[in-house]
Amino acid sequence: MKVAKFGGSSLADANQFKKVADIIKSDAKRKFIVVSAPGKRHEHDFKITDLLIELAKSYMANEKYKSYYITITDRFSQIIDELGLDKSLYEEIKTTIDDVMVKELPDDEKLNSFKAIGEDSSAKILSAYLRKLGLKGSYVNPKDAGIMLKNDRFGAQLLPESLEQIYKLREKDGICVIPGFFGFTKNGSIATFSRGGSDITGSIIAAGVKADLYENFTDVDSVYSVNPNIVENPKEIDVLTYREMRELSYAGFSVFHDEALIPAFEAGIPVCIKNTNNPDAKGTMIVSERKNEENRVVGIASDTGFSSIYISKYLMNRELGFGRKLFQILEEEEVSFEHAPSGIDDMTVIIRDSQLTDNKEETIVRRIKEELQADTVSVHQKLALIMVVGEGMKETIGLAQTATAALGEAKVNIEMINQGSSEVSLMFGIKANDLHRAIRSLYKAFFEFENDRT
Ligand code: ASP
């Protein structure tokens, strides 16, 4: 049996819901369906989740909220109308929104309750539509599905005991339509994953029911070897390992949430990325192992929005506890770090800009200077990270050289190289301004040149 997850663009309007229903209908193995909230219908449109967050914020701040309310309810009304579903479903969704508004709840719980409405409504609409088409489809609330979570400041995390509970879903008759993105804590309040988290729900359900395959339907034919906004018509990737996908989605490959890989990986369930708008395309498979002789490098990912803190102190290597004290300062300032390459007398800590407010930056620099007696502490902003990803890279002679030569050719200065513990990627820190040039040159070196030779 299969778990199929449909993202926001796959459910953006009634026509998309119809495509989704066709896909479900075309394969009887698609028994568990996980859905996102309706996403954008076109570039300048709004995602329902974003609108719900705006509605929540303005309502909770006693500001004008009506326009958000109307836009959201109109979107649902139109979808329900165009699918020819009963008006009572629209009333039900509207009542859910009204109830969340008036219910006395702590702020974070109230915000989560608003955020959950998008996915919850998508699941109700899709299950009703499947029934209209004569299929046996039922809406299954995440609580009944057994998705138990604990809150975390970066988004909820699954409680391990959930999986046993989810397994029982296999006994349910017909097609189960489950809203993505949220679950419940032990005390019954709604908790949401980080943004884009319906992928995580899909993966959890796939792991829980021990599915044969987790299909993740989105709006591209496959995962591309590089961002198509930077390189035109890049090579499509047929097969990837979990580890490769993890590295790629960490650094900007937004087709699949990086947290979503873990449940599928642990349960050994293959994942297939497919296109709702072109379901016959074969898509990209994510599996435990692949024959890696063919392409050592499968993809080049990149992301901007990083800063680095450079710390140097003579004889740092001999100072007991230096690293611990440094990371303790970060912990106390509630800043998590991404990477920390080090030299003999120096260390660089890479941090996402979203973590580092001006205030925190000042405090951290001051504390490192004072408490660690560092010789130099400097912050460098507007960094971009590039990950050249591929299993077996470490064993391939000359790969790093190809990469550095490509960057050199593009006149890109390398601020940092890291091929530390990860066996599947080589990471470069460069100035964000140089990013497109760097990526194009790397792509040429690893993909175009390689192809020319074969
Ligand atoms: N609707 C949520 C978001 O926009 C979750 C998802 O679509 O996966 O972040």
Task: Walk me through the structure.
It contains 14 helices and 19 strands. A hairpin with a 6-residue loop joins strand 18 and strand 19. The protein starts with a strand and ends with a helix. Helices cover 39% and strands 21% of the residues. The longest helix has 26 residues. With 454 residues, the protein is an alpha/beta fold. The site of aspartic acid has 13 residues, from helix 8.
Label the overall shape: globular
Number-wise, the strands total: 19
Query: What compounds sit in this structure?
Result: aspartic acid
Question: Low-confidence stretches at least 5 residues in length (pLDDT < 50)?
Answer: none
How are strands sequenced across the largest beta sheet? 3-6-2-1-9-13-14-12
Largest sheet: 8 strands, mixed
On the 0 to 100 scale, the average pLDDT is 94
User: Helical proportion?
Assistant: 25-40%
Q: Helix tally?
A: 14
Beginning-to-end CA distance, first to last residue: 39 Å
What is the strand content?
15-25%
Radius of gyration, in angstroms, nearest whole number: 24 Å
- What would you call the structural class? alpha/beta
Keywords:
454 residues; alpha/beta; 8-stranded mixed β-sheet; 5-stranded antiparallel β-sheet; 14 helices; binds aspartic acid
